[in-house]
Each structure stands twice: as C-alpha cells, then as structure tokens.
TrEMBL record:
The chain crosses the membrane at residues 90-110, 122-139, 151-171, 197-221. The lineage of its organism: Bacteria, Pseudomonadati, Bacteroidota, Flavobacteriia, Flavobacteriales. Keywords: Membrane, Transmembrane, Transmembrane helix. This is Uncharacterized protein. The keyword Membrane applies. It comes from Chryseobacterium taeanense.
Amino acid sequence: MMTFFQEREIEKYLLSKKISGKLLTEIQDHMISQISEIQKNENLNFENAFEEVKIYWSADLNMVKKNPFSRQKITSIAYEIDKINNKSTLLKSILIAFLFICVEIILAFALNEQWYLNINKFIKIIVFCLLLEIIVMFIRQKNMENKNNTGNIVINNFVHPLFVFFITLIADNLIEIPKNSFALIYDYINSISQTEISIFIFFKSIFAGFVFLTLYLFSYFSLKGNIKKLSQIKKIL
C-alpha cells in the first residue's frame, strides 16, 4: 500500500515538470498503479519502482518549447494537449461568432429599424463588458499565479490570450471598415442605401466582424480556462 508521502513525492515530481490540474491527477493515478504493479511483480522498493516509471514516462514528460516564440518549456504531453485545447477553444469561438452573425442578419430581416438598433445598443454594451472582462480576467490570472507561486505552471496556451486580444483590438481600429456595422447590416439587407453600400463593403464588414469577435471570444475562453486551472492547482498546493 502506497503511503501519503510517497503519493506526495509523485505529485511534486509532476509539479516540477509543470504538470497540473486534471492532467496531473490522471498521470499520477497511472504512475501509482504502475509503481504498485512493479513493486508486486519485481519485489522492488518504492524508490526503484518510481525510477522505472520515470523512464517509462520520459518521452511524454520531455520538456519542449511551448511555441516557437517562447523560452518557456512544457512537457511533450502538455504541449500536445494544449494544441488540442486551443483548437477546441478556437472552434467554439468560431461557432459562436458565426451564430451571432446569423442572428444579426435574421434580426435585420425580421425587425423594424428602431427595434433592431435598440437591440444592438444592448449588444454593444455586452461586447464592451466582454472586453473589460478579458482585461479583468488577465489581472486575476496574474494575481493567482503570484499568490500560488506557480511560476506559470499551468498557463501553457500555444497563443497567449492577451496577445490575441491586443492584436485584435489594434487591427479593429486600424482596418478601414464602417464602424456602425449594425446599421450597415440593416441598411444593406433592407435596401435602404443601395447606392452607398456595395456588396464588397458589406461582406468585408461582416467578415471583419466575424474574425474580430472570434478572436475576442478565443481570448475570453482561454483566460477563463486558465483561471479554472489555477483554481485547481491552488487546492493541490
């Protein structure tokens, strides 16, 4: 039977490899089972059995750069999982942004102009709050890192969410598209100003709005995931 202190030694080893959260729990459980099996079959003590298990996991726990532009290193298994998580977050963001654009177009068909613009004033407030929340969440993340003294142990995003946020914010203000895009959507769909709004300007605005919203959502969901991971590691530490 493995003791609490032996389990804690495995946990500390994984933490030193910047493994955390659910991944830490899963690998730790596997290691405990493997160590117990080796001790039973080969009649080894904990230290020697643990060394054999370390060798078994050496490829997955090999340290690699988390991305080509970072000096920070994470384990190979965390790198692969991080890529999968980022793809999942990006796909979720794309889906939500696409549905939002579809709803905007449907509302432009279904509502009169005053109702449509009133609803979108409320949407603008929500988007503004989202942008503020992204900044607040990043500050909260940094505070949690400092308090827990984790040394970025769980922040393994292949693309940093705040970098995405600021690049998107800058691009949003530099690209020449009509800023009152909600009114543009309504006017174009209802043929109010056909002479002023070309098909190119309409689809350019739609595409830009879709891309920017996708990236803002990606930043939001990434930071939300980071805070959740930091909350999990706080319980361990």
